[in-house]
Amino acid sequence: MYQTDPGALPDDRFSPGNLSWLVPGNHGRLLDARRTPVRVTAIDIHHGYFEVEILAFEDTGARWLIPLEEVTHYQFAPDSARAETAAVASMEEIIRQLDVTVKIAVDQDSHRESMQKIAAERARADAWLAVHGAPDKIDVTAHIDSRRGSPEAVRWLADYLAERLPAGLPDMDQQLAASYVSIPGSGDLVRAHLITAARLGLCGYHGKAIRDTSSLSGTWTEERRAAHIIIRTGFVQALWRRAARPGLMIYRGIGLQGSAELAASSGSLISATLSRAVAESHFNSEPCPAAALLRRQLPVERLFMTFVETSAMNDKYLEAEAVLFGNGLLI
Fold first, then answer.
1. 80-107 pLDDT, tens per residue?
2. Cα-Cα end-to-end distance for the chain
3. Which of 60, 89, 287, 315 gives 20 to 30 Å between its CA and that of 153?
4. CA–CA gap between residue 290 and residue 246 (Å, rounded)
5. Cα–Cα dist 32/284, whole Å
6. pLDDT band at 292 (very low <50, low <70, confident <90, very high)
């Protein structure tokens, strides 16, 4: 289901990642299952990131901002250039300053208030969909089987956001979705949204702190991000209440290092799929010593984003994806 390189070199032809390899122009690989090749393109020492360009597979050409301390998730060609001692020392110092963990528990009062706002938005979106020609019952089965979204739903979402959101926020939706699909942890774009969702009481958050304050200023203030989350969520849930199928069956195939991980907490948002075939593909291809194939019927109130109305989920990856608010479980 995903592109791979059967001729990829073995790991012993590369050197483990450390800060000394972070020199623009150096080539390396992400330590994922398919060893995605990358090139270092820039170092943002002020915010504690290095940038890589993806050189193969579905995300070819994408640029990712990676926290400096996560260089250990990569390996590099041993003949690559090495950073000077002073540059490495500067990176080590900025890591000490910026590698901060934030933990936000779900506040029940905030949760109730946000759920009330989403319910009101869901009713508003439902009335809007009726006026704009959406059928009472939408057959999503064909979309799930083909793993391709609905052009009509994509258009409805764009038009609704353009009407409901403050100026500039419809573009935010496209940027967020594209970043989430490629790599949620790139820079602070998605991270600031996760923290905002946690402060709304819609999920918890346990992860890195914001490093670039501009991610919460201008068009991207927390207030405007919160408006986007509430309005988009209400629309998506109204759309899926029209799905002509019983229940919302969600699947997830995951790799595990051990059975204890089945009890691990989820993230703020959970990426799952509406297609069993996609989940089975993950389950069967995971290189971990153990794997789990999960299935659960959920209420639409868990939905934040799906492939049916999100154009970015119908471009490079065709996973019939559903993005859920985390609830402390794996699905």
1. 999 999 999 999 999 999 999 999 999 9
2. 22
3. 60
4. 32
5. 15
6. confident
Phi, psi of 114 (to 5 degrees): -65, -40
Among candidate residues 284, 312, 50, 281, the one with its CA nearest the CA of residue 157 = 312
DSSP labels, 146-194 = HT---HHHHHHHHHHHHHHSPTTHHHHHHHHHHHHHH-TTSTTHHHHHH
Q: What whole-number distance in Å separates Cα of residue 209 and Cα of residue 192?
A: 9
The domain ranges of the chain are 11-99, 102-325
Look at residue 267 in the predicted model and tell me its pLDDT.
86
Residue 79 has which token pair? 């003949």
Sequence letter at residue 214: S
What 3-state class would DSSP assign to 223? helix
CB 208 within 8 A of CB 68: no
Token pair for residue 155? Answer: 């258009």
The CATH number assigned to the domain with range 11-99 reads 2.30.30.30
